[in-house]
Amino acid sequence: LKNNSFSEEYAQEKHEGKDSPENIRYEWEDEFRLTDSSDVLEIVRDQPFVLAGELGEGKPFHYEIHDVVQFIFHGENGSTPIVFSHKCLDEYVIDHDRKKLKVYLNDDEVVENPVPGVYIVLSAFPKELQN
Questions:
Q1: Does residue 21 register a pLDDT over 80?
Q2: CB-CB contact of 85 with 66 (8 Å)
C-alpha cells in the first residue's frame, strides 16, 4: 500500500532516496506465490467479483462486488483470481518473463482483505460482513 504522504524530495535530501521511519514509502505489502505453473494472465475489468463463503454458524453468504479489476491466472489446476477495487488500485506492472505481477495500492480509502488475493475498499465491502 503506497503511502500518499511519502515525500520523494525529503527521501532524496535526507536519506539518499531511501525510506526512513518518519517518511515511509509503503505502509504494508503482501506477497503470495501460485503453486501450479500458471502461464496465462487475463485481466477482467467489466465483471463483478463474487465474494462467497460461510459465516460462523455455517450460514452461507454470496455478494457481488462491483468496480473491480481481476487478474486471473490460468494454470493446470484451474484459475486463480487476484482482485482489487478500482478505487484502491494505483498502478500495476506485469513482468511476463518472470511471471510476476506487482500491484500498487493507494491509501485514499481503507482496504479490506477478507481472503488472500482479494482487496476491496471499505465503501464497497458488504456491510453484513464488516465487524
A1: no
A2: no
Here the cell at position 46 is: 467489466
Q: Are strands 68-75 and 60-65 parallel, antiparallel or unpaired?
A: unpaired
State how far the Cα of 10 lies from the Cα of 24, in Å rounded to an integer. Answer: 11
Taken as a whole, the chain contains a residue count of 131
Only one residue has cell 455478494, namely: 63
CA atoms within 13 A on the CB side of 44: 16
Query: For residues 52 and 34, what is the distance between their CA atoms, to the nearest angstrom?
Result: 21
Distance CA 131, CA 127 (A): 9
C-alpha cell at 109: 480509502
DSSP single-letter state for residue 116: T
How does residue 44 score in pLDDT terms, banded at 50, 70 and 90? very high
Residue 11, φ and ψ in degrees, nearest 5: -60, -45
CB 83 within 8 A of CB 98: no
Give the other-Cβ count within 10 Å of 82's Cβ.
19
